[in-house]
Amino acid sequence: MIFFITSCESRTYEEISDNTPITSVVKYESDLKPIMDSNCTSCHSASGFKPLNNYNLVKENIDIIINRIQRPAGDPLKMPQGGSLSPNQINLFVKWKADGLIEN
């Protein structure tokens, strides 16, 4: 019988990178907002559960967002529900945080 041990840990951009480094500074308006609009705001709109429809709300919840989008397939807390962001899209969120959560 094999046991898997998991722990809660914070991983750096380099540790989760798909070996295609994002060399430019990641910004909310140009890089993340389109991802949020097409994958998240249908459920997380201003009138929805846990609104994530603007820069300040995404910035305030970035740790939760990263946690949820990095969860493995089949995890009931994985976001977006019923789908997944690409590794590059996930890396953009992690890099945005590392870059200082720049808006424009």
Descriptive account of the structure:
With 104 residues, the protein is an all-alpha fold. The chain has one domain (26-99). The chain has five helices and no strands. It has helices spanning 13-16, 28-39, 55-60, 62-69, 87-99. The chain is globular, with a radius of gyration of 14 Å.
Summarize the structure.
InterPro entries: Cyt_c-like_dom_sf. By secondary structure, the protein is mostly helical. Helix content is 41%, strand content 0%.
What shape does the CA trace take?
globular
Poorly predicted residue ranges: 3-10
Kindly name the structural category: mainly alpha
Q: What is the number of helical segments per DSSP (H or I, 4+ residues)? A: 5
Quaternary organisation: single chain
Strand content: under 5%
Radius of gyration: 14 Å
In angstroms, what separates the terminal alpha carbons? 51 Å
Order of helices and strands: HHHHH
What helical percentage do the residues reach? Answer: 40-55%
Domain unit count = 1
Mean pLDDT across every amino acid position: 86
Number of strands: 0
Protein name: Cytochrome c domain-containing protein
List its salient traits.
single chain; Cytochrome c domain-containing protein; 5 helices; globular; mainly alpha; 104 residues; disordered N terminus
Strand and helix layout:
Elements lengths: L12 H4 L11 H12 L15 H6 L1 H8 L17 H13 L5
